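re: ur question from yesterday

yeah so i grabbed the chain u mentioned. its 193 aa long if i counted rite. heres the sequnce exactly as i have it in my notes:
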Amino acid sequence: MTPTTAPTAPTLWQAFRFWLKLGCISFGGPAGQIAIMHQELVERRRWISERRFLHALNYCMLLPGPEAQQLATYIGWLLHRTRGGIIAGGLFVLPSLLLLVLLSWLYMAFGQQPLVAGLFYGIKPAVTAIVLQAAHRIGTRALRNGWLWGIAGAAFVAIFALQLPFPLIVAGAALAGYAGGRLLPQAFTAGIA
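ran it thru and got these structure tokens back, copy pasting raw so excuse formatting
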């Protein structure tokens, strides 16, 4: 989608079917869920622009709580206002909850059986691959220059090596972005569509 191409508006029924599908297939935690939303909503269906998606994602990641859930609810609201937000938020959680209850029951009842144990162990590397692919996909779109990659790398080191508190890392990244915006505005500005 080019910056001048307007996203197409789905019907409420099309959106309902998408959110139901997403709720049933969204594995891999927030990174996997966000990657699926990006691929489906921005690239495939073109219901929302790339810039609007990344803008919404940035704000949802700063809010307390699950960012993928907040992003789905916000996009649902953007597409169909209150009804869309309720549908997207509800269907993002309910099918996953039912699948989790079913998988938990299977594990508790049959987890010691070699077939079931093998299935659960086989899921782990697949989910890991989904999360890594999602992080790479979103990262390459959001981090457009070396300065932004540097901030992301510093945040990674701060989280995993230094084990600094998350609010401190966010504040440090915000300060680096503010300073970068003042000193190198061409590298730290992004338009919102």
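noticed a couple things. The chain has a mean pLDDT of 83. also Residues 12-110 form one domain.
anyway ttyl
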